[in-house]
Amino acid sequence: VWDACSEAMIVFEKDDLDDMGYIVENDVIMSALTKQLDAVADRVEVFYRSRAVRYTWPLPSHSCDTSPWVQVELADGRRLQTKLLIGADGHNSVVRKEAEIKNVEHQYDQSAVVATLHLSEATDNNVAWQRFLPTGPIALLPLSDTASSLVWSTSHDHASELLAMDEESFVDSINSAFWSNINHSDFIDTAGAMFRSAISLLKPSGTAVRQLPPSVAKVDPESRAMFPLGMGHATEYVQHRVALIG
C-alpha cells in the first residue's frame, strides 16, 4: 500500500502465517457451496428460482415454548416456517425492512470500476497492491500467475470515462495510475523524509527491498463494470427470531 503524492508506504508481512488471505472468484465460491449442499441433500432442500414475498413474525411477548414460528410466504404460494429467520439478502435486505430495522446510510460520492486483467508476463502473483491517488485508491488483487482483479475507486465522472475507453487506453490508464509520479509533491516528500529520519534515530530498522507492481497487458472483454460506493449499517442485527448476517 503506497501513496501517489509521496514515498509513504506500508508493507504487510506474513512471517507467522501461511497466507494472509485469499482472493476467490464468485463462481468458485458458488461451486463450493453447491458441492456442500449436494453432500447434505438428504437433510437440506434448496428452492432455486424462488422469492420470498412476505414474512410474519410472532409477538415477542410470547414465550419461546408457546410462540409460533416465523412464517415465510414464497411468490409461488408455498409457505414455510422457521424458529429463526436469517437475513442474508444484502444491502437492500427485505428481511431487514420487513423487521422494521433501521439502516444508517452514507454515499461516498464515488464509484468503483472493476475488471479482470491479464498481466504482461507470468509471475509469482501473490501480492495485493493498493495505491492511494488524489481521486481515490486503486487496487490490484491476484487471481493467478497471469491474471488479477481490478478495483479502482474514483469520482463518478472519471469512472464513466474509464468505462468508455477503448482497451488500450484503459490499460494505459491503469499502468499510469500505478507507476506514474506525476502527483508527487516535493513538500510532502521532504516532510516525510524528515519524519522517517527522526523515527530512525529512535528505532533503527533494516532497509527493505521495495517490490514493484506487475504491469497490465490487457483486460478481459465484458469484464469492466462500475458500482456506486456507499456505507450501510443496520441499527440492530438481532431481534426476536431474526438475525441479519449480510
What are the defining features of this structure?
monooxygenase, D-Amino Acid Oxidase, Chain A, domain 2, 246 residues, three-stranded antiparallel β-sheet, mitochondrion, alpha+beta, seven-stranded mixed β-sheet, elongated, FAD/NAD(P)-binding domain
Give the distance, in angstroms, between the N- and C-terminal Cα atoms: 27 Å
CATH topology (fold) name of the largest domain:
D-Amino Acid Oxidase, Chain A, domain 2
Q: Approximately what portion of the residues adopt beta-strand conformation?
A: 25-35%
CATH class of the largest domain: Alpha Beta
Query: What oligomerization state is this entry in?
Result: single chain
Q: How many distinct domains?
A: 2
Order of helices and strands: EHEEEEHEEEEHHHEEEE
Give the name of the CATH superfamily of the largest domain.
Answer: D-Amino Acid Oxidase, subunit A, domain 2
Please give the number of β-strands.
13
Low-confidence stretches: none
Apparent shape: elongated
Question: What percent of the residues sit in helical stretches (DSSP H or I)?
Answer: 10-25%
Helix/strand-derived category reads: alpha+beta
Mean residue pLDDT:
86
Whole-angstrom Rg = 24 Å
Domain FAD-binding: 75-186
Organism: Grantiella picta
GO molecular function: FAD binding; monooxygenase activity
Keywords: FAD, Flavoprotein, Membrane, Mitochondrion, Mitochondrion inner membrane, Monooxygenase, Oxidoreductase, Transit peptide, Ubiquinone biosynthesis
